[in-house]
Specification:
6-stranded mixed sheet; Rossmann fold; 24 strands; 5-stranded antiparallel sheet
Length: 600
């Protein structure tokens, strides 16, 4: 950091309806404050902290937690100062840059645990973006007795710090690379690393607003071109391990065949880096929306795990065939190097610690599993999937807690079950900092799972599959704002979630019912982990297939999904296979009672 300055803004905000991604442009009269990034701040880092006072509901028994009180802070360009920064027809230079949420960071409490204030914190590299920017505030406060009562108002303080950086490289998860040798030594592997794997290529850095390329389709293509060079490096190394010379894409088909000979014992690719340091590939999509809060394209690590992927004919292979993963891959991620060090320790010493956690109904934690979903369309159509996951869990001798009724999906009732479960599957509406089982209280969203309440819990080294939109997103955001990383920070070993919108089905009957997209992928993954993979008709595809790692199980699930559902030109099937990923060590092999236990 070469220089910095700080500005503090205070004011009042009136409660309004907000959702998980609220666009501040929908409420142009909300509080706005302006700040200017100086011309010599080419590589600027913008840090924002917002603290908002909670209000007291007049309804007896209501608390800020139950009401889901929250605030949002947005940063961007509002050149005409009309409060609209996204898709403003009056100002083509307006731009939405990033946003932050109190549910995505922290609840400030007193010594008795009572919620006092909402706190947002986030930062983002704002490159080649000098000039005037806007900070905008939205909030949802307590409920009122009737819809005719005036909305409540509260006070807030926003602190904006702008740093002038000397270097353009911007790690989201600092110093993770220092742990790569430890992981490689434990797994008897090797480290492949170069500083220029970073997304910040010379070509990208010449573009305006190049801090987060997922916000711009042209910049995403630059990252994808860069990924092709990284893939060449990886495939050359993979070739050497097989005694082969890989000169270019012409040798990729033979290499892919060599690495797919034993799919139940694959080669592992552990990416111990955030997406700024080792980028994701952005697959095209035909169905995702225009939403800068979410990020464009389908952010994926499949491109590296599909050895002969054809960049010119994505997602197909160079042999013209459907996509097929040969490597079991995963991102070893966390808030920072300390978080990832703890994650690796829980993974390496897993069998030394799992007897120390309490399970469901007095049973051992390691023998406990949970299965939960809500009933709101299209989530409710996953019921047949969850019933078959129940079957897989029961066949593997797990004690299973299933909450099939919306009223029992509420986090206040199910958070303890999450803590007590080795395997967890959930299906719910979500975003990168929360998911909302439709069993939340009808008078507020306090029944959700979100970063600020997940980090207040301690979990066992569990495996979680979330069939939910965006909860697996880690590109372009700080890890401490992501619910997936909150679970890992709080003790979970593996989180599998979608980096973008996860498709659901509106079908309420018929052959497929809810057994497509993320829900079906979760059924397949847990089937491979337990050894009991159920098909759409309720029979077994296979059984007793062995004791597998999470990376292998998801790789097999994706390949099986493509085999059964095919590809659809960037539609829901392609998006599903591309966006779900292991966050954690892909070689981690969790305990199942029928594999490591004493079950007969």
């Amino acid at each position: 950091m070469l220089d910095s300055f700080e500005e503090v803004f205070t004011g009042e905000v009136t409660s309004s309806d907000t959702g998980s991604t609220s666009d501040p442009s929908a409420d142009p009269n909300s509080p706005k404050h302006y700040i200017t990034i100086p011309e010599d701040y080419q590589w600027a880092n913008v840090k924002i902290e917002t603290v908002m006072d909670f209000t007291q509901s007049p309804i007896p028994g209501r608390t800020p937690d139950l009401d889901g009180q929250r605030c949002y802070t947005y940063f961007g360009v509002d050149e005409d100062e009309d409060g609209v920064m996204h898709n403003d027809p009056d100002s083509e230079n307006d731009r939405f840059e990033f946003f932050m949420q109190s549910l995505g960071y922290e609840t400030i409490r007193d010594a008795s645990g009572n919620a006092l204030q909402a706190r947002c914190y986030a930062e983002e590299p704002i490159y080649n973006a000098q000039g005037k920017h806007v900070v905008q505030i939205l909030a949802t406060l307590h409920l009122t007795y009737t819809p005719f009562a005036p909305p409540p108002t509260t006070t807030y303080t926003v602190t904006v710090t702008v740093e002038k950086r000397s270097c353009h490289n911007y790690p989201l998860m600092p110093e993770l690379s220092s742990l790569a040798p430890y992981l490689a030594a434990y797994r008897q592997g090797l480290v492949l690393a170069r500083p220029d794997y970073s997304i910040y290529t010379e070509e990208l850095l010449a573009e305006p607003y190049c801090g987060d390329p997922s916000e711009n389709e042209a910049q995403m293509e630059m990252v994808n071109n860069h990924m092709a060079n990284l893939k060449l490096d990886l495939n050359k190394q993979l070739g050497e391990l097989k005694g082969r010379t890989v000169e270019g894409t012409g040798d990729y088909n033979d290499l892919a065949a060599a690495y797919s000979e034993d799919p139940y014992n694959p080669f592992y690719l552990g990416i111990i880096a955030d997406p700024n340091m080792v980028p994701k590939y952005y697959y095209p999509t035909a169905g995702q929306g225009d939403l800068p809060q979410e990020g464009y394209g389908i952010a994926s690590d499949n491109f590296l795990a599909d050895i002969n992927a054809d960049k010119e004919n994505i997602p197909f292979g160079l042999d013209g065939g459907d996509p097929h993963l040969e490597l079991a891959n995963g991102r070893i991620s966390g808030w920072d190097v300390q978080d990832v060090s703890a994650l690796l320790a829980r993974t390496f010493f897993y069998f030394d610690i799992i007897d120390g956690f309490q399970g469901i109904g007095g049973q051992p934690w390691k023998d406990s599993a949970m299965n939960t979903f809500g009933t709101k369309v299209p989530v409710g159509n996953a019921k047949t999937v969850t019933e078959k996951i129940d079957k897989s869990f029961h066949e593997a001798y797990f004690t299973v807690d299933s909450h099939h009724d919306a009223a029992f999906s509420d986090s206040q009732l199910t958070m303890p079950i999450f803590r007590q479960s080795n395997f967890v599957y959930f299906c719910a509406h979500g975003f990168y900092y929360w998911f909302i089982p439709p069993g939340y209280k009808p008078a507020g969203v306090g029944g959700g799972f979100y970063t600020a309440n997940v980090i207040e819990n301690d979990f066992g080294p569990s495996v979680i599959f979330g069939s939910s939109c965006v909860t697996g997103k880690i590109d372009g955001i700080q890890p401490y704002n992501a619910v997936s990383q909150a679970f890992l920070h709080s003790g979970v070993n593996t989180y599998v979630g979608a980096s973008r919108l996860s498709w659901g089905t509106l079908s309420i009957g018929g052959e497929k019912s809810g057994e497509v997209f993320g829900a079906y992928l979760g059924l397949l993954m847990y089937g491979y982990l337990t050894g009991y993979v159920y098909n759409k008709e309720g029979g077994l595809i296979s059984s007793d297939i062995g004791d597998l790692s999470v990376g292998t199980a998801l790789m097999l699930a994706k390949n099986k999904y493509v085999e059964e559902c095919g590809t659809d030109g960037g539609g829901a099937h392609d998006d599903t296979v591309e966006e779900f990923h292991v966050l954690g060590d892909p070689a981690f092999n969790p305990y199942e009672p029928n594999h490591e236990g004493n079950a007969q």
